[in-house]
Task: inverse folding
């Protein structure tokens, strides 16, 4: 049964500047948001920005690829909201996989580091949030949106590339996880989705790139809108996968 | 340059009861809608319903699989709005392919009829509306949403099935067209998208099916919301393909 | 029961110069081959070449996209071998879809001509040969290879392209048919396969193209070997789909 | 330049009973084979069997998922054949990923163990053999077959499943690696391929399963034939991916 005291939150891993910040701001229009990133310095300005806009945000520095990081995060939330007094309405795994293009035979230990960190992060995060997403199915308020878990993918989620083995392995693996969780938790009422971001995202770091061609980079606020759209879908009509690319992208 | 006199319309082929009607009602919240279906009898109640809700709708009986049907439709619209005085903001090809499961060797002439009708319909419709979608790119009002062409697909868009050759050929072919048009007209500013409807749609005809399991059929209003979401995307962030299925669907 | 008098043949539609001829020569090492092409002039030299090499070949001019062409072909074979006295060990649909790249809005009636001819051809051919492939399952000699139906696909079987809608629709549709027939007739013992030819084929017509780069075009004899390999597989281990491309092809 | 003293070998990781043994026997018809498996006890009978059949085989117990295992394997081969005196004609990564179906939230540390071991194994193996495959391109004898690297995949290479996240992540990641290596090393003349084994393989362990239905399990000798077929292809006509399934498999 829904309790009036139950708090529904959104939690975003990879809430640094760019896509993560856009997603955080979008979900903060409806939910208190919990923001995870490796460095507190990425979180503080975002928490402040959301707070000033009238939202509620908590930043928790956490490296989700490390064992224990998600457990201690969830414990901190239980202290914050009271054990059994919160559910997760939406969880987004937006942690970047390390992108590098390098000749396979020149690569060293780092070749698998990206895969292992990404896979571990995605798995740790999913294990930590799914019990709270399931609790939202059981105890959520009447009329709530189905609890949602979204993974951020990339072009390389669908296609390997010369020198891109490490990145593609990461992204293929996350897609495999997203599909497997969708097939396991969908029937339990949790909406699991995967977004293929097929293009350069417009961020501070990419602002020189294609600077003279308007709209040639993906607006991170529209990645956030797409994730919100996914969250808004009722359980009769779940989208598992969608792609996003600029109008002028070659594909 | 945008002219104050230019009218932006939405046009839906396959605007019969069910999905087509939901799409029509959704787009009628913003645009005058032009509804195409083979029989006037499917159109009249929908036109009336939209009109009573404060929208504007025109029903044109047209079999888009027939040569000339779309030309005469567009000419009728030019008489209605004035030549060069309207653009198409959104066009939806929602004409059903005939679904039948039958042993291949027992099938007759009808085996290819579905493919040919669907392919011809999708092609005729696209040829007729694309000049007006391109005109919307050129002449549309400031701040308009990118003109959008959406095709309705199905499970069989991705996967053939025993006894389903005719239907799958239709659906694969439409997907090929959608991809080809997206790659040709995307760079010109037209958003071409394809939706994979993977499940039974909740309509009058399917109401007995899974009657005891709530939300086990796709809500057509949420197909319409998905199409509207596609239309709402700015050109920096086009989704070409998304799927839609009930939470409990096996896939 | 296998009859000593039953003849096992191979039949190739699209047996013109290039890939079709290579396939014909390969299968003629084991079976009498029946060669279909629109023009007798493409068939005569090939029949002679196979005969001189010690094989048996019959050329039948036939446009498989035309109604009745396959029926009259099969009747001719019944006259030749005696009704109920032959089975089809292998059938290959290698009829080229018309390839053209053209702006969608500039295309005319021919836009759908390719799709309709290809789909009709593939369907007519399959309907005509499948009863004889099934008969081979029932009546074939001990130890024969499973009867096999192979369709030639292309890059555009998987991916639409700007200006390629007509060709891609054809190729997607054939792939849908191949998948559907595999799922229907595989369990009955017929091996249905689809080959994605992803690159330029080395033929008389393409000899100027990449002339200075050895092996940059697909050797049609190796398409033939791939088809023979498919035919050689026992029913425990059917390959439904494989791709073929030059080592230096970008994909 | 090819040296008469250069030895061309085949090397198979995962050469235990079943598929690995079949592949080893098939390639031993042409090359000395180097067999890797975790336990010497799996290797000894196979080495003896190949030797008695007139082939040459070396078994090297090695856990390719462990750092250093492949380096010491390759050093052992250099001692055996002489530094710079051997090339790898064919390398097969057939190491099984641990298959388990378990509820995601009940899984522990082992959830990622499969992925990490498989990814590490596939990456270690590829890094160790590719220099010798490239050397085969440079120094191989006239008329040799293009050096080939084949990865064994599964149904779960293409599709996640409820409770199968761990296995699917492994298999998706290997496919990503295979695609990336194909795109990097194909243009250098190395044939990189990926086989999707979609069904139960007929082995000692599976002999009770479907025991009453002949040919319902994949014959491992025909997996081996498929790998040999891949190896036999000239560089004008490389197959990157093929599937293999019993005629009666649902897919």
Result:
């Amino acid at each position: 049964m829904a309790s009036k005291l139950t708090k529904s939150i959104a939690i975003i891993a990879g809430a640094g500047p760019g896509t993560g910040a856009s997603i955080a701001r979008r979900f903060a229009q409806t939910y208190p948001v919990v923001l995870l990133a490796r460095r507190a310095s990425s979180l503080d300005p975002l928490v402040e920005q959301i707070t000033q806009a009238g939202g509620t945000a908590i930043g928790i520095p956490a490296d989700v690829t490390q064992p224990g990081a998600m457990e201690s995060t969830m414990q901190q939330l239980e202290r914050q909201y009271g054990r059994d007094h919160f559910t997760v309405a939406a969880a987004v795994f937006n942690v970047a996989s390390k992108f590098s293009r390098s000749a396979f035979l020149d690569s060293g230990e780092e070749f698998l580091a990206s895969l292992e960190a990404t896979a571990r992060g995605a798995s740790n995060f999913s294990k930590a949030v799914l019990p709270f997403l399931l609790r939202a199915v059981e105890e959520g308020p009447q009329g709530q949106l189905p609890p949602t878990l979204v993974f951020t993918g990339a072009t390389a989620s669908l296609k390997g590339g010369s020198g891109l083995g490490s990145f593609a392995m990461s992204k293929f693996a996350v897609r495999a996880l997203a599909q497997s969780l969708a097939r396991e938790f969908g029937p339990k009422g949790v909406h699991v989705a995967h977004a293929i971001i097929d293009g350069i995202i417009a961020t501070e770091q990419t602002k020189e790139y294609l600077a003279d061609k308007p709209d040639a980079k993906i607006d991170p606020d529209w990645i956030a809108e797409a994730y919100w759209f996914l969250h808004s879908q009722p359980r009769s009509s779940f989208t598992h996968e969608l792609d996003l690319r600029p109008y002028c992208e070659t594909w």
About this structure: The two ends of chain D are 48 Å apart (CA to CA).
